[in-house]
Amino acid sequence: MCFRLQRMTSANTIYRQFTSQAEIDAEYNAGAAVPDPGAYMARYLERAAHARKHLRCLLDVPFGATRDETLDIFPADRPGAPVFVFVHGGYWRSLSSKEFSGVALGLQALGITTVVVNYSLCPKVTIDEITRQTRAALAWTLRHIGLHGGDPRRVAVGGHSAGAHLSAMCLETRWAEDYGLAPDPLAGAVLVSGIYDIAPLRHSYLQPEILLDDGMIQRDSPLFAVRKCATPTLVTYGGDESREFARQASAFHHAWQQAGNRSELLPQTGANHFTAIDGFEDPASPLCRWLAGVLLSAA
Fold first, then answer.
1. DSSP structure string for 105-118
2. Is pLDDT above 50 for 2?
3. Within a domain: residue 217?
4. I need a labelling partner for 234 at 20 to 30 A (CA). Which of 118, 191, 259, 286 fits?
């Protein structure tokens, strides 16, 4: 059973209580909310380069027909390892897998294989197509990760920002009907600082690149189509993020629970939008511990 949620607006508002693009941008422009966003990107790049230098990796493995559809695989040391598939952010219109190799650092230390997904970007393609590519990457992983030392019975998905949105869309995939896989093939999901109702972004600075319309908002907002799903989910965000990022996380967490699913909500004290994924680099962090817990206990 899918749950359709309605957005509440009045004649004077464009989304919820917001009456202008400036108000929406103030909540959703994460880069403008920190003093030096470039410093966080520089750290991503440094940690990513460190991971590719010091961890075993197989880069740019194709999973689809286009040049953008590739995976970077960081195998665990032992065969038959559980697997985490990470989907990067960038508001669907920037960045790539290469900036996020660092997420493998904490997980590899726990014996978890990490797969980092690359995908095409807006406006070259739509969010519909990016969602399709992300699902295809997961289907490829479930079918082929055994050839790279991973256990297809223990695969989790997760992502950051737009990547959390795309991961949530994967949770609502008709895996049996559309891919011939088990109905709920994923052992867990970690959604970091995601947007689960994308409607406000139609009124934001992003619209010229992401080109949302009514149909895309309905199809590609995971909050509007939560289904019964056996995959346990961690929904998390930075405690220093905007009220809207916190509200989006809470709304999805509660909708996931209302559908009879397992969900935990974790505000990260002191973290902002860019540091909320730092825990993937630390095997002792709450993010890594939660992932290890669901993956190591899976069949």
1. HHHHHTT-EEEEE-
2. no
3. yes
4. 118
